[in-house]
């Protein structure tokens, strides 16, 4: 059994360790998340859950700038 899985971040494929959380994945790849929001499979993940949210094979992550407005 492989300890790597494939996920996608903003259309780019990554092979990552199965033990990565969302937070550790973003940190490991040096991705600046200040002022950003994250959705996994089109569901917003609150920043308070990033450290405990595990990743699964084939998930699609979207990272985008949060914009205030009305």
Write a concise synopsis of the structure shown.
This protein has 70 residues and is mostly beta strands.
Overview of the structural elements:
It holds the Pfam family ThiS. This is Sulfur carrier protein ThiS. With 70 residues, the chain is mostly beta strands. It has a single domain, classed as Ubiquitin-like (UB roll). The chain contains one helix and five strands; from the N terminus they run E-E-H-E-E-E.
Topology:
Elements: E1 4-9, E2 12-17, H1 22-28, E3 36-40, E4 43-44, E5 60-65
Parallel strand pairs: 1-5
Antiparallel strand pairs: 1-2, 3-4, 3-5
Report the CATH architecture: Roll
CATH class: Alpha Beta
Could you tell me the strand content as a percent range?
35-45%
Helix percent reads 10-25%
Structure classification: mainly beta
CA distance, first residue to last residue: 49 Å
Number of strands: 5
* Nearest-integer average pLDDT: 92
Question: Could you describe the largest sheet, including whether it forms a barrel?
Answer: 5 strands, mixed
Read across the widest sheet, the strand sequence of neighbours is 2-1-5-3-4
Unreliable spans = none
Shape: globular
* SSE arrangement, N to C: EEHEEE
CATH topology (level 3) name: Ubiquitin-like (UB roll)
Instruction: Give the name of the CATH superfamily.
Output: Beta-grasp domain
Number of helices: 1
Give the total of domains. 1
| Rg calculated over all Cα atoms | 12 Å
């Amino acid at each position: 059994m492989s300890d790597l899985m494939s996920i996608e971040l903003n259309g780019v494929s990554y092979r990552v360790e199965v033990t990565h959380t969302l937070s550790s994945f973003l940190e490991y790849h040096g991705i600046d998340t200040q002022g950003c929001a994250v959705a996994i499979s089109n569901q917003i993940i609150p920043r308070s859950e990033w450290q405990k949210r595990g990743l699964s094979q084939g998930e699609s992550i979207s990272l985008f700038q949060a914009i205030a407005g009305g």
